[in-house]
């Protein structure tokens, strides 16, 4: 007897709702019953769509990463330079309305680092997406080693500034540091 086939559209809609719920309520106490009740579905529906709780966490991580990357990429245009790409990433990630999303991002990032075998897909992509985009933003004529080092510094600096902002709430000081950093990045003529 074959089970019901997975409706990928419904799973995607449900996953977006689960991510929204998790952004609002946090990651540490995520469990089937409260999520199901909040979304108006049964726990059986969640299990059918996601498998185990750990598989649901992996799906949440992947969708959150996709959302963050896609939202920033949309603001860049077709061929941004490094300064434009980094500024777009900083502007998007540091926006006050994104605080809950990035608190969740760092919480799940920490969880993934604690269980790298379980969250290998997330860890593989969380840097690679930005690394590729920031290397590309430096232009084809940039030495690949230099482009990789520069992209690494941009990613680390933006994430560090964002952690500082989330930890302290000192928007003026952190924004000033971000502006100082962003001003050092090259623009294509």
Automatic annotation (TrEMBL):
Keywords: DNA-binding, Transcription, Transcription regulation
Pfam short name (any one): TetR_N
Keyword DNA-binding belongs to the record: yes
Coiled coil: none
PROSITE patterns, per the entry: HTH_TETR_2 (PS50977)
InterPro entries for this protein: Homeodomain-like_sf (IPR009057), HTH_TetR (IPR001647), Tet_transcr_reg_TetR-rel_C_sf (IPR036271)
Residue ranges of every copy of the HTH tetR-type domain listed in the record: 8-68
DNA-binding region: 31-50
GO molecular function, one term: DNA binding
Protein name: TetR family transcriptional regulator
């Amino acid at each position: 007897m074959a089970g019901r086939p997975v409706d990928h559209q419904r799973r995607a809609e449900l996953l977006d709702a689960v991510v929204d719920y998790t952004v609002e309520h946090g990651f540490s106490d995520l469990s089937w019953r409260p999520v199901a009740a909040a979304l108006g579905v049964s726990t059986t529906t969640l299990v059918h769509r996601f498998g185990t709780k750990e598989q649901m966490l992996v799906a949440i991580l992947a969708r959150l990463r996709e959302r963050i990357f896609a939202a920033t990429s949309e603001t860049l245009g077709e061929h941004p330079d490094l300064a434009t790409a980094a500024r777009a990433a900083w502007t998007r990630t540091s926006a006050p309305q994104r605080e809950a999303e990035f608190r969740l991002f760092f919480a799940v990032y920490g969880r993934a680092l604690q269980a790298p075998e379980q969250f290998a897909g997330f860890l593989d992509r969380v840097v690679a997406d930005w690394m590729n985009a920031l290397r590309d933003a430096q232009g084809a004529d940039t030495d690949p080693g230099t482009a990789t080092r520069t992209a690494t510094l941009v990613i680390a600096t933006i994430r560090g500034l964002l952690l500082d902002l989330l930890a302290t709430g000192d928007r003026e000081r952190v924004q000033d540091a971000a502006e100082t950093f962003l001003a050092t990045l090259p623009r294509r003529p």
